Amino acid sequence: VAVLRLELEYDGTGFAGFQVQPRARTVQGVVEEALAGLCGERVRIAAAGRTDAGCHARGQVVSARVEPRLPPERIAAALNARLPEDVRVRRAGLAPDSFHARFDARARRYSYRLLDVPSPRWRRCAWWPGRPPRGECLRRAAAPLTGEQDLSSFASAGSTPSSPVCRVSRAAWEPWEAGWRFEIVADHFLYRMVRAMVGTMVRAQAGPDPAAELARVIEARDRRRAGPTAPPQGLCLEQVYYDEEGTG
Amino acid sequence: VAVLRLELEYDGTGFAGFQVQPRARTVQGVVEEALAGLCGERVRIAAAGRTDAGCHARGQVVSARVEPRLPPERIAAALNARLPEDVRVRRAGLAPDSFHARFDARARRYSYRLLDVPSPRWRRCAWWPGRPPRGECLRRAAAPLTGEQDLSSFASAGSTPSSPVCRVSRAAWEPWEAGWRFEIVADHFLYRMVRAMVGTMVRAQAGPDPAAELARVIEARDRRRAGPTAPPQGLCLEQVYYDEEGTG
Fold first, then answer.
1. Is B11 a catalytic residue?
2. Chain mean pLDDT for chain A
3. Which pTM was predicted?
4. A203 at the B interface (CB within 8 A)?
5. Is B128 on the interface with A (CB under 8 A)?
């Protein structure tokens, strides 16, 4: 028995989220089915980040204890041959026996895309917030998010994180071809935190002092002070960092 | 009766192309239906470029003779309320009586996206050509495409253009976030020309001299000498140019 480590990309549009649920198509479900086909037995995977329905991943990492019947370098292609087109294994390999995709993750990077105008072509991967984003206001709004602090104000009910204190090493807006894109790196993430942050920044960009508004929301430690949760399709789990890789 | 001019964006994934066909969902079909709903009568639209099934548009321009019941500034919102989410009117307005979206177009700009790796998230708008694109080779391959010349080698059967001579004012590859993107501006386009060009450049990038290979293909004026037609999903009609706007 070995520990398999997979890096997954997926389009979350057609999934009811990552985590297995009865009678729903989930990323975990289709990946475990492909692994079972490959290994001849039921396999459970553990994921670095359990994304919600409609959210995407470019670099989700999962681990599984398996009896591999193939040399590691052939596993990615063999799994991709069994997977639907909205999930791909980008990398596969064997990890140390103690490796666990979730518990060993040191940091994660997420992105969230906004649209400048409503766009049919990007509707599955970005959010049109009803008015054009003001990039400079969003940048000011994001500044107070960096650092180590209690981010309870952005935590939705439904999860029990070990601690509401997160160390955010990067929180920045950059233009992308159809609008603005938020990128955040932190050691851990509270439930729906990124989407709540984006909803709060989009609300704050219309106000007189976006940075002060975000600082007030953080200080309150009260979810009711933050803005609405931005919709899922803008979110993407870009990368998971482990000790051997640094945190970019 | 006035001439309405619409600028359309659409995701071509769910359409059997632009042009109306019996028992098929087409862009023309859904736009004409929305216009009929707005005007209370059957309306025919003319498009600057008739895109194939699976191809997209960011700036398709269509014109129609209509009896508008609304002030021009309210037409876009009224049409969008009647259109499905994979087509949007980006701009709507009245044009001079003589305006015709196709006959008056002076130039068009298309893009074609390649992927660096197979990608579930970008599979509807880009092509994974089986091996990573070599950007510098593609750039050399594109150089002979610029200028005024007979481009019959890239014309598929199925159209009867006025002339196989096209004036290409720009043909260039640039990186985009998930691979390489080709952009071409020309006064007119032969049937499936861009996709044949891309298929030929992708084939040529593996050879010793991509520029010489493209020059030979052009010189032959023979479709059989060009490469295979690249698949539709990478193609996007970006912009149509008219006299008042220049050709960028």
1. no
2. 94
3. 0.92
4. no
5. no
Say how many Å lie between the first and final Cα of chain A, rounded.
32
Residues present in chain A in total: 248
Cα–Cα distance for residue pair A85/A79, rounded to 1 Å: 11
Give B7-66 pLDDT, tens digit per residue.
Answer: 999 999 999 999 999 999 999 999 999 999 998 899 999 999 989 999 999 999 999 999
Task: Give kind and range of the element (H or E) at residue A81.
Answer: helix A75-82
CA distance A137 to chain B (A): 24
Is residue A246 pLDDT above 50, yes or no? no
For A120, the closest of B10, B119, B123 (CB atoms) is B10
Taking an 8 Å cut-off on Cβ atoms, the answer to whether A121 and B58 are in contact is yes
Backbone angles phi, psi at B171, to 5 degrees: -155, 100
Q: What is the DSSP string of A220-240?
A: HT-GGGS-PPPPGGGEEEEEE
With 0-12 CB in 10 A as exposed, 13-18 as middle and 19+ as buried, what is A156? middle
Taking only the tens place, the pLDDT of each residue in A32-78 is 999 999 988 999 999 999 899 999 999 999 999 998 788 989 999 99
DSSP structural state of residue B93: E
CA distance B115 to A9: 14
